[in-house]
Structure formats: C-alpha cells, structure tokens
Amino acid sequence: MKSVLLIQYSQSGQLSDVAAHIIAPLVEAPDIEVTVETLMPVRPYPFPWPVLRFFDTFPEAVYLDAPPMQPLAVDPAKRFDLVILAYQVWFLSPSLPVTGFLKSDAAKKLLRDTPVVTVIACRNMWLMAQEQVKALLVARGARLVGNVALVDEAGTMGSFLATPLWVLTGNKGPRLGGLIPRAGVKPEEIARSRRFGDRMREVLARGGRIDERLLQHLGAVRVNERLIASEKTARRSFLIWGKLLRSLGRQGSFSRKPVLFVYVLFLLTLILTFLPLSMLVKALLAPLTRERIAEQKAYFGRPSGA
C-alpha cells in the first residue's frame, strides 16, 4: 500500500478544487492511501479581505514570518511515499499559513527525505514564491520532484484588476460588461489537472524512486519570460517597504497605517506605469537577451519542464 499526503491551504476554495482534481485518481486507486491535511492558523485569515488588513499582511508574508499554527491532524512521524503541497501566493511569497507549516518542527519530520510536488493556483506571478518554497523545502530535507502552476484566465493585464477585486470582495466577476474579466483559473483547466494525478498513480504503481521526471511533458508549468524581471523588481520593492513597515510595529498596529496608505498609492502607480513600461522595454530588447532569457525560463520551469 502506497501512501500520499496532501497538505493544503485555500481561502477562496479554488486551490482546494484544483487539489481535489489532482488527487482524485489517487483516491480512486485501491492500493493508495490518501491523507488530506488542511492547514489552520491560530488566527484565521479572512476572505474576502478587508483592504487594510490585506496590505498589512504583506511585510510578514515577504519576510516569511511564520504565524502560530494549529497542531496538525496527521502524525508528523508518519512516513509518506509522496507529499503534495498546495499553496497560494501572497505578495510573491507563499501564503503565511504555508510558511508557518514549512518552518515548523512537524514539517521537518514529515518532509525529511520525502518527494514533494508543489501545486499553485494564482494570478500569473509565482516564480519568486516558488524560489522561497524551494529553499524552505531544502531546509526541511525534502526532495522537490514536481511543480504544477495554474494561472488565472484573465491574463497579465486583465488580472491586475480582476484578481484584487476578487480578493477584496469575494466576487470573481466579470465586471463592467466584461471590461474587467473574470478572475481565477478556468474551470476547464482545473478539470484537466486530473492528468497530474493520473501520472502520479502510474508512477506509484510501478514502484521505485520518484524523481524529477514525475510530471514532465504534461504542461504542468508555463513560465512567462516577460514577467521574470518584473517579479524580481517587485520582490525587491516588497522587501524594502516590508522592512520599513515591520520597523514601525507589529501587524495591525496603528503606527503602520499612514505608511500603508502611501504604500498602496505607490503600488498602484507601479502597476499602472512601471510594469507595463518595463514589459515593453524587455520586448524590444528580447533579440539581444534571447539566450539569457531562455536559460532563466528553463531554470524557473524545473523540475516539471515546459
């Protein structure tokens, strides 16, 4: 009997839906035991988010300040043949409940010498978050063997408005007669994610070591090379502002609020001016940087490939 552990945290339910489709073939297999662990922070995070609390969360998210977590239901000493870690992206970082888990002693026990597949459902900027998750997995002695990244159907520009409105209102849209598109991953794409579970079931049935070939050639990730530099720039900006806000007090403190208002205005300006301009410049320079961009694209696509 093979054993698989799904560890998940989802606010809207979209990521849980994706994870359910992925593990469906494993649940249906008579020779595979599937355990589902839903992470629970001591202080729950709201959905939809109040505006100020949403932005007040970003300094801790980008600096990976682990929040207090409820004890896991699963025994940390239990060994699994495969662990699936489904996580949201908050401000180009893993969501705080997932950070809380990955920094825990329980994670060190559960993940040591264990193959892990990460699963992401987000707007379309997940590269920097995955880099941080990779480092946390290495620190826990885990082996990353696959990554699935499903992105919103609205595209880069459309999701700039669609996704924040969904997060702050709980309504996916569309809005204004379709001018602001529907947020979230296409239902058809979520349904198709079952193919990843089919592959996992096949490999588990064969036995042997699970390695980085697990999800290759299934279209598990698609790296948008035009967003690589934008993510790196935004990540640096988050770290600068996050450091300032952390120096002003704890999350929720009144002393943060004036700077948060300034930050929100800065962020809107950045989104509406710098990011579109930087994408245009990168497109113009693409012929000169094609080889370097191809190397970066291949790196961020590992281990599941394009």
Description:
The model has no long low-confidence stretch (mean pLDDT about 90). The longest helix has about 45 residues, at about 255-300. The protein is built from 11 helices and 7 strands. The protein has one domain (about 1-225): Flavodoxin domain (Rossmann fold, 3-Layer(aba) Sandwich). It has helices at about 15-30, 50-55, 60, 95-100, 105-110, 125-140, 155-170, 185-190, 195-205, 230-250, 255-300, and strands spanning about 1-10, 30-40, 80-85, 90, 95, 115-120, 145-150. A 5-stranded parallel beta sheet has the order 2-1-3-6-7, sandwiched between helices. Strands 4-5 form a two-stranded antiparallel ribbon. By secondary structure, the chain is an alpha/beta fold.
Concise structural overview:
The protein is α/β, with parallel strands linked by helices and 306 residues long. The chain is built from eleven helices and seven strands.
SSE layout and pairing:
Elements: E1 2-8, H1 14-28, E2 32-38, H2 51-56, H3 58-62, E3 82-87, E4 89-90, E5 93-94, H4 96-102, H5 105-111, E6 115-122, H6 127-139, E7 143-151, H7 155-169, H8 187-192, H9 194-206, H10 228-248, H11 257-301
Helix pairs in contact: 1-9, 10-11
Q: Descriptors for this entry?
A:
306 residues, alpha/beta, Rossmann fold, 5-stranded parallel beta sheet, 11 helices, 7 strands, 13% strand
Low-confidence parts, pLDDT < 50 over ≥5 residues?
A: none
Structural class determined from secondary elements = alpha/beta
Overall mean pLDDT score? 92
The total beta strand count reads: 7
Cα-atom radius of gyration:
19 Å
- In N-to-C order, the SSE pattern is EHEHHEEEHHEHEHHHHH
CATH level-3 fold name? Rossmann fold
How would you describe the shape?
Answer: globular
The CATH class: Alpha Beta
Distance between the termini: 32 Å
Query: In which order are the strands of the major sheet placed?
Result: 2-1-3-6-7
Number of helices: 11
Biggest sheet record = 5 strands, parallel
